[in-house]
Amino acid sequence: MVLAALVDITDFDRVNSFAVDNLQPLAGGNGHPQMRAWTEVLISPAGPMITALVIAVAAICLLAEGRTRAAAAWPVALGMALMVEIVSKLVVGQHRSGIWHGFGLTFDSSFPSGHMLRAILITGAVAAVIPALRAALAVWCVAVAVCLLINGWHLPTDIAGGILAGMALYYFAHALSLTPRTAASPSSSSSSSPYPGTVAPVPDRPGTYGSR
User: Fold this and answer.
1) pTM of whole model > 0.90?
2) 176-186 burial by CB neighbour count: b if 16+ within 10 A, else e?
3) Residue 154's closest CA among 107, 91, 210, 109?
4) Which of 31, 85, 131, 208 shows a CA-CA span of 20 to 30 A to 107?
5) What would you measure as the largest C-alpha separation in the chain, in angstroms?
6) DSSP 67
7) How far is residue 68 CA from its own chain's centroid?
8) Which 3-state string (H, E, C) describes 134-196?
């Protein structure tokens, strides 16, 4: 919210102008067509429709595993992301995007980057199902941020806004996914201890206990 207010008041002219002049080699149809095509391929999974599909599939998988709270958390976060994006675009006058015109809406603000926001939510939802993909998905998020900038789809402040909103909703969904028992447990290492927050003693040899 603070960044949104600052963008609306100051527009971060120097930062954004520098990016437009020096950091967007593929904007406006410039650059190699194949390179532009590849960057768009990297960005496209974070589009609204594909994101909704991916998170729906992830929710079904989580539900099948009996993780009902997690199955509900990520679709809720996606719904909140849509509200955050629309409200921000209505309030913040950074007029650079007409993509919502295709949905019958008249606002053209580019803040925050919805693609960046949704990429982070995809990362969280898919990693909740397949934790081993978390690192690869984090790398993809970085690639999305870079591609959004060099393609001229978004200004640096748009991307920063998408990252901040996405991370806030990521942690919200993660917290919502935890059961009360899981959230209250300090760690698995203390599960055998009769006192919460302490670690069970480790036998040194039969009949004695040490501090290991």
Assistant:
1) no
2) ebeeeeeeeee
3) 109
4) 31
5) 76
6) -
7) 21
8) HHHHHHHHHHHHHHHHHCCCCCHHHHHHHHHHHHHHHHHHHHHHCCHHHHHCCCHHHCCCCCC
Average pLDDT over the chain, rounded to whole?
81
Return the structure tokens found at 57: 């599939």
The residue type at 14: R
For residue 204, what is the enclosing H or E element?
strand 202-205
Query: Cis omega (within 30 of 0) on the bond before 25?
Result: no
Query: How many residues belong to the chain?
Result: 212
Q: How far apart are CA 41 and CA 182, in angstroms?
A: 38
In the block, residue with structure tokens 């040490």: 210
How far is the C-alpha of 147 from the C-alpha of 137, rounded, in Å?
Answer: 15
Distance CA 104, CA 87 (A): 16
